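Collaborator request, handled under Task 6.
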Amino acid sequence: MTEQATTPSTTLDRTPDPEFLWALQSYVMESGRLLVVEVDRDGRIIDSNLTFRSRFAGFASVRGEPLSRFLSSGSGELLDIEPGLPRRTPVARVFQTPLGGETYLFHAYPSGRGIVLIGELANVAESDIVERMGNLAMEMSRLVRDLRNTNRELVLANETNQALARTDPLTSLANRRYFMDRLENGIARARIGGAPLSLIMVDLDHFKQVNDRFGHAGGDLVLVAFAGLLESQVRGVDLAARLGGEEFAVVMAEADLRVAGDVADRLRMRLADLRPLDASYRVTASFGVAERRPEEDADALLGRADDLLYLAKRSGRNQVVLEPAAAVSDRP
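Structure tokens returned to the collaborator:
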């Protein structure tokens, strides 16, 4: 009867971290010198490298075969292949060929599917084998460290790319696309919860004159300065965005028309102190403020706020225009 490997149920957790498993699979499986074989809990071979197959099976597949067909403990008892990894320190296992003659030293590591055994023929000085295994452990540790660093860099790069995809490159405010996504999501939540939601549209007054007088670099300074003021005056739960050119917007969740109007008026007054270019240039802006009506979608709300903004423009600029209070009083 074929011997099977023992798998005591009282051993340590054999689940390796992903980077450690990657080092096992990608580094040692490609080794041309080391014998590498992965077995399941019943001691049957799941995978092996070319070196193992060439030595024990003449390059033939050994998948599904019991490991005890090729190796034994040398004293008749069942194979002990438990990894026994306190603090990931591998335990050495000494095996022999079933008919004796050759002795092998293996280190046992847990894998995602079972146990990976990594070893060499032990016909050289034991100290040499220990040194080789130590070098292998150091190399795997380096691979794990490098992989973790790479994964961390990839995560950071992905987060950076996501931030860039939703950010206006000049002002670092949200761009139009991300703003529209947030506005639609905010309206969906407001419909479910019944909370108010308001929108402020802003357009800097006479901005073409800024570019004509100070150049586009001067215009950029004004946009950046206004963006900084805008962020400083809105709540953390609000989203300020540059929609394009000199046009900005703020979506305010759980804020009614009165709250949004107060924010817009405070912004207009604080603009009087903004001097991004020189003392002779004063920045002003026009504001349109609207609160979401029942069943209104993002485009409709944006259109109404935009109409109110241009009403402020036509009425002399540098002012805040709110929708009529009667329109808001109809909300549930």
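The cover message to the collaborator said: "The radius of gyration is 35 Å. The mean pLDDT is 80. Please let us know whether this matches your experimental observations."
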